Amino acid sequence: MPSGCPASERGVAVTVVANDTRTVRGASTAGTQALPLIEQPARIAPGDARELSRQFFERLAVLPEGTREYQYARNTLIEMNMSLVRFAARRFRNAADEMEDVIQVGMIGLIKAIDRFELSRETEFTTFAVPYIVGEMKRFFRDTTWAVHVPRRLQERRGELTRAREELEKRLERSPGVQELAALMGISEAEVCEAQVAANGYTSASLDAALSSDTEDGEAALADFIGAEDPAMELVEDFHALAPLMAELSDRERLLLRLRFGAELTQSQIGEELGISQMQVSRLLTRTVAKLRTGMLGAAAEARG
Fold it and tell me: Model's pTM, two decimal places?
């Protein structure tokens, strides 16, 4: 290093790429187009990173992609501005278990910002980059933390609902109602209910997860408390709908149905019982069952409507 070079106040060591001359930041360098070679970019102070980033962006704009100097400039910009990712990650500190993944996706946002930033915008790079970084972090939580996929607007409303509930609980010293939440959030009660239902999709529990160990057989799982569908329930509904239709039938029609489906007699046996032919029994049964079927279908259509 030339003996006449003054030392930087912060002592950040750099090397000029063009002539490989060792110097320190703040020194006068020959060849203004040369980029300083920063030995530990990640350890650069944020204030220094802002100043150096402008110099690197100016050079990056004129360098051909794929060259060694272009890759060096881009990689150095990434490492120098990693503090922005750590800064943005603080707002997600409640997700400590996933912080490593948050930092990783934040780096993706930083890289996107570096590739799209232009000095002609006359905007500080930090101002430009933070929305990219935070956006990638939010996308990560939106795509990976919800157990059930729900629309983005409902995911965002869940956060608003949580904050509104916490505020009202402190103010009212009780759990707020739907009407109170709607008034604070400036939305309808129906939208509050929709957000509450959507919030149930944030987490899920396994049906095999143990709930307690108070039972005689040991631990009880959630699946043990979920009943199976009883096919007989449909018959109850059918009988309920069929009863008024049966009341409208004639005595002869009801007797015919009781002998055929209750006593399970054949058409010939029913004919002998009623003193009519087997052909007549068949016609009467067909007409009576068709009448009941039409009534049942009409009742089902009214229920759906």
Answer: 0.46
CA distances (Å), 201 to each of 72, 95, 143, 146, 204, in order?
A: 45, 18, 12, 6, 7
Average pLDDT, the chain: 79
Dihedral sign, Cα of residue 75, residue 76, residue 79, residue 80: negative
Question: Could you give phi then psi for residue 263, rounded to 5 degrees?
Answer: -80, -10
What pLDDT, on the 0 to 100 scale, is given for residue 218? 59
Decide the pairing of beta strands 210-215 and 22-24: unpaired
pLDDT of residue 34: 73
Give me the mean pLDDT over the 118-135 stretch.
89
* 251-260 contact pairs (CB < 8 A, 24+): 252/284, 253/284, 253/288, 256/281, 256/284, 256/285, 256/288, 257/285, 257/288, 260/285
Q: Which of the 8 DSSP states describes residue 220? A: E
